[in-house]
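Record minuted for everyone:
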Amino acid sequence: MLLKPMISLSLAAMAGLFLTLSAEAKPKFTVDNETWEDVRIEIYNGDDPLCKEDLKTKTVADDESGSFTCKGSGTGKCKVKIWVINPFGKDDSICRSKRNTCSGRAIKMKDGATLKITEEDVRGSNGERKVKYNCEIG
């Protein structure tokens, strides 16, 4: 009589552990680039505190999206640096975290998250046209 509840409890514990490990093993996220420029994505493992070991670098073309993974290494997250590819000069780093994520140069993407990148025209203090990039994680 006691055996049946123990087996059920054991199976439930094993299923919970499996789901936890599979969710954190390879977090998958999406980048939705709604700008006029291509963006470069540098992906780092979740346990890389300084973003020193670049896992992979990918490009998402303008008005396209892409899905990516990393080794969550128990964190369930990837660390990601985003750059707007500027054909006329230096690439611009965008979507940086104010928190201490790779010295403020990256963001953390959870499993299943989508990063939406948009742009808008703004005027500088001297009336010069500039582009402002907005990053929204959902």
The longest helix spans residues 3-25. The radius of gyration is 20 Å.
